[in-house]
């Protein structure tokens, strides 16, 4: 066959080739554009972490030591686990139990400590008695219509009783040792939880034994620390908040999941590697990095003169207290509003118009700049309600108003993704609207709601401008001691300290504080993304 | 009516308490929804009360046309320098974020594999999740020296020898410690995801039949993306642009920390000088007033609310505009 190319065909091929080239160039530039923002941020993160961590001062042996004890074993384990889904699953669970438990217990200890364990115990005790009574009654009777609504009411009643009796009760309670408060606040709930989880799988008797074992363990830890002559509070909290969940997960995985049981080793490889590396570095006198990410940073209060003494402990606890109380205020309202819009709001008539108005209003609220929320908080809490300047309640309330639209929109999406068949099936079985919502729709929507609420928390913990506007103190030397005491927050300290031009502050301790904030926020985002991927719409 | 059928109906009806309980829950839930309207009302009341008492002391004409903002020292309340600062940051951050965000949206919606998308989308979301105080710190401490190391630049637009005013030489002088360029840079980065995620939603909503029709006519992927998909999604893209600009206008901490506290009227015609100099945005001025000790009274304190009102009206208008654009020009498929 003749394969002579005429000039026309030649032109055609060149044109096609040019078009292909154009397409490729376009795609490359798209990829570049997608990456440019991410890369710029990564470079800036690198700058900030190098300043905080100062790896330059460390000797090469330091890196070698940690590579050998930490990075290489972790990499080997990860590669091994990647090929076995069962191991990976167990590994993820063990990581969540170990580090989640550790984080949770440290946070609980810090918050309860700053709010005074005796006060927290008094309120929690009185607030938990009435619902416990209601639940006991619920067990003994067949007529359960009243118990649902009775529980929140009974909690409020309990809190009211606590407030009234506070002056009489606080004295006698104050006689008891501090660790008993932590035992009641952390160990008892942990024991009840373990008992319940075990009872649901292996019968009531085993459950009671397991719960009793946890409580006995807590007492043993307390006794051991008293004998050793150290304050028993932190050991008790650490035992109940991290040893108990870790052993529960390890025990369950080993017993019930023979294929995946190797996965529980994961977190211990990490911890063991770190300890081994540290002991090697210590033992051979290897030069450490000149890091600003020290225990001082996490445990001390701010020192504007000596960088090595400057810490952000009050600010971290303040951020957690403010954001935690904000969650208590804002999440019920936000989730309630989302439920109304998705499940209750009529689609026509006045109700329908109201629903449209609400939707438009919420999307507009999401676009209001955060400083304006600060002005709202200032006017509402300081002017109208007459609260003091920059207290926890005002800060939490202001941030709560700010994140309300985020919570509503994400919860709405979660509710929308629950298939309608489930609702219809529930109605068909004779369930009422509220029963359907509580038993069918909300459980299905939990992962989506959780993702949205965690993202909202991450947003709130980094928010600065509204707190500056409501005049939260930038530098305080103690964490908030109650809901009506002065608030403080980590981003505010970074803002205030950014004016400090001393090199060891500008390129040292302030970046280190920023790294702490970034780690908090990235952890929250990562948790949200993991939950979303695990329970995403695809599955 | 027989007795049997009456009991039949009776057993199908819920007890009075259940009905009342259902009603109670429905009301509680509706109340929390209505609370969101109260938030808006609260914002408007909180802002307008003090803002109008400010404008009764300082006339709105002086406020909106004054070219000097110096509330504490000179008692002059002209908002134009602040608006100019806000505009400079908004325009230059838009120069970064709008093209980059749209390109990212096209890539994610048209080109990226599922794996790439599942990594890049959360990574882009992180850009919007980083606390703005950290963006501000990075701009102040890292971005400014980094850019300054390549400055000053000067490029003559008009060849030498032609007698014109020296101002028409484009000169990028070296940066001040506080400058608009680094602030605009970080604001640009942080609003990229705003553009990319909303635009991507709009692009993904374009029905596949349009793309297939394009390919059927012999178009390349480039042609399909740029001539079919992007034009069909224009309304969504424009809406994302407006929302991103509104976010840039309301951005506070990054501009406060990186751009400084010295309000300036814009430099002209050497526009690049605006980037090298420090300035002050509306939001930064509010932070400055809130940080000062004058809290609680006086026209300066009330000026904060007047600024807030101005900001609220601007951003609200833009958000409503974005919504209108999205509704009005949406192509129905």
From TrEMBL, chain A:
It comes from Natronomonas aquatica. PROSITE patterns: ABC_TM1. Its main location: membrane. This is Phosphate transport system permease protein PstA. The keyword Cell membrane applies. InterPro entries: MetI-like, MetI-like_sf, Phosphate_PstA. It comes from the Archaea. One of its GO terms (biological process) is phosphate ion transmembrane transport. Keywords: Cell membrane, Membrane, Transmembrane, Transmembrane helix, Transport. GO terms for molecular function: phosphate transmembrane transporter activity. The keyword Membrane applies. The chain crosses the membrane at residues 25-48, 60-80, 92-112, 118-137, 149-169, 175-195, 207-226, 232-251, 263-286, 316-341, 362-381, 387-409, 509-531. One of its GO terms (cellular component) is plasma membrane. PANTHER family: PHOSPHATE TRANSPORT SYSTEM PERMEASE PROTEIN PSTA, PHOSPHATE TRANSPORT SYSTEM PERMEASE PROTEIN PSTA-RELATED. Belongs to the binding-protein-dependent transport system permease family. CysTW subfamily.
TrEMBL record, chain B:
This is Phosphate transport system permease protein. GO terms for biological process: phosphate ion transport. The chain crosses the membrane at residues 24-47, 79-107, 119-143, 177-195, 228-249, 303-325. PROSITE patterns: ABC_TM1 (PS50928). Its main location: membrane. The keyword Transmembrane helix applies. It is found in: Cell membrane; Membrane. PANTHER family: PHOSPHATE TRANSPORT SYSTEM PERMEASE, PHOSPHATE TRANSPORT SYSTEM PERMEASE PROTEIN. It is a multi-pass membrane protein. The gene is pstC. CDD domains: TM_PBP2.
């Amino acid at each position: 066959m003749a394969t002579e190319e005429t000039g026309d065909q030649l032109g055609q091929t060149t044109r096609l080739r040019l078009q292909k080239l154009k397409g490729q160039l376009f795609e490359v530039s798209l990829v570049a554009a997608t990456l440019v923002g991410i890369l710029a941020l990564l470079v800036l993160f690198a700058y900030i972490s190098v300043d905080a961590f100062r790896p330059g001062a460390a000797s090469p042996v330091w890196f070698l030591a940690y590579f050998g004890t930490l990075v290489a074993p972790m990499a080997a384990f990860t590669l091994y686990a990647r090929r076995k889904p069962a191991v990976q699953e167990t590994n993820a669970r063990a990581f969540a139990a170990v580090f989640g438990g550790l984080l949770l217990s440290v946070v609980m200890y810090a918050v309860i400590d700053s709010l005074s364990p005796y006060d927290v115990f008094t309120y929690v005790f009185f607030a938990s008695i009435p619902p416990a009574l209601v639940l006991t009654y619920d067990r003994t009777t067949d007529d359960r219509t009243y118990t649902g609504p009775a529980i929140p009411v009974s909690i409020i009643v309990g809190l009211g009783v606590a407030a009234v009796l506070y002056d009489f009760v606080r004295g006698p309670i104050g006689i008891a040792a501090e660790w008993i408060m932590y035992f009641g606040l952390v160990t008892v709930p942990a024991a009840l939880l373990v008992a319940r989880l075990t009872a649901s799988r292996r019968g009531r008797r085993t459950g009671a034994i397991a719960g009793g074992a946890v409580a006995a363990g807590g007492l043993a830890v307390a006794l051991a620390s008293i004998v050793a002559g150290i304050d028993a509070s932190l050991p008790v909290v650490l035992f109940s908040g991290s040893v108990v969940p870790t052993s529960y997960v390890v025990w369950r995985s080993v017993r019930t999941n023979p294929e995946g049981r190797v996965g529980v080793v994961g977190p211990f490889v990490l911890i063991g590697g770190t300890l081994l590396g540290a002991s090697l570095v210590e033992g051979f006198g290897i030069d450490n990095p000149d890091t600003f990410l020290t225990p001082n940073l996490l445990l001390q209060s701010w020192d504007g003169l000596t960088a090595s003494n400057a810490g952000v402990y009050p600010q971290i606890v303040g951020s957690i207290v403010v954001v935690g109380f904000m969650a208590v205020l804002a999440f019920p309202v936000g989730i309630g509003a989302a439920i109304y819009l998705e499940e209750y709001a009529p689609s026509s008539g006045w109700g329908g118009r109201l629903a449209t108005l609400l939707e438009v209003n919420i999307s507009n609220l999401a676009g209001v700049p955060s400083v304006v929320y600060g002005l709202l908080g200032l006017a509402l809490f300081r002017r109208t309600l007459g609260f003091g300047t920059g207290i926890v309640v005002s800060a939490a309330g202001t941030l709560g108003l700010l994140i309300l639209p985020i919570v509503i929109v994400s919860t709405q999406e979660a509710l929308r993704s629950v298939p309608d068949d489930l609702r219809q099936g529930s109605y068909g079985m004779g369930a009422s609207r509220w029963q359907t919502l509580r038993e069918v729709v909300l459980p299905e929507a939990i992962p989506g709601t959780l993702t949205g609420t965690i993202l909202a928390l991450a947003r709130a913990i980094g928010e600065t401008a509204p707190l500056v506007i409501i005049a939260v103190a930038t530098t305080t030397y103690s964490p908030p001691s109650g809901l009506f005491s002065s608030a403080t927050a980590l981003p505010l300290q970074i803002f205030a300290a950014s004016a400090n031009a001393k090199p060891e502050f500008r390129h040292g301790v302030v970046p280190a504080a920023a790294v702490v904030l970034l780690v908090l926020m990235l952890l929250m985002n990562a948790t949200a993304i993991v939950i979303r991927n695990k329970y995403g719409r695809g599955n | 009516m027989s007795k049997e059928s009456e009991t039949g109906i009776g057993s199908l009806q819920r007890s009075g308490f259940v009905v009342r309980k259902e009603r109670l829950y429905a009301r509680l839930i509706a109340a929390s929804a209505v609370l969101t309207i109260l938030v808006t009302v609260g914002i408007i009341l909180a802002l307008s009360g003090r803002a109008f008492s400010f404008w009764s002391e300082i006339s709105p004409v002086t406020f909106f046309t004054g070219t000097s903002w110096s509330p504490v020292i000179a008692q002059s309340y002209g908002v134009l320098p602040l608006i100019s600062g806000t505009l400079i940051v908004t325009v230059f951050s838009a120069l970064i974020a709008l093209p980059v965000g749209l390109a990212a949206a096209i890539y994610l919606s048209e080109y990226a594999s599922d794996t790439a998308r599942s990594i890049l989308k959360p990574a882009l979301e992180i850009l919007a999740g980083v606390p703005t105080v950290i963006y501000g710190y990075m701009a102040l401490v890292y971005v400014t020296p980094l850019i300054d190391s390549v400055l000053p630049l000067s490029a003559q637009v008009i060849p030498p020898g032609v007698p014109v005013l020296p101002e028409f030489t484009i000169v990028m002088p070296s940066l001040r410690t506080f400058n608009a360029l680094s602030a605009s840079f970080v604001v640009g980065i942080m609003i990229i995801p705003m553009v990319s995620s909303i635009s991507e939603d709009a692009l993904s909503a374009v029905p596949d039949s349009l793309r297939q029709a394009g390919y059927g006519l012999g178009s390349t992927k480039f042609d399909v993306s740029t001539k079919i998909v992007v034009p069909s999604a224009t309304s969504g893209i424009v809406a994302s642009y407006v929302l991103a600009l509104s976010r840039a206008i309301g951005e506070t901490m990054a501009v406060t920390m990186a751009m400084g506290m010295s309000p300036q009227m814009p430099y002209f015609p050497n526009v690049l000088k605006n980037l090298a100099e420090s300035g002050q945005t509306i939001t930064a001025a509010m932070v400055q007033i809130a940080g000062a000790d004058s809290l609680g009274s006086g026209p300066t304190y009330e000026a904060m609310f007047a600024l807030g009102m101005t900001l609220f009206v601007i951003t609200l208008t833009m958000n409503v505009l974005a919504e209108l654009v999205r509704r009005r020009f949406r192509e129905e498929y």
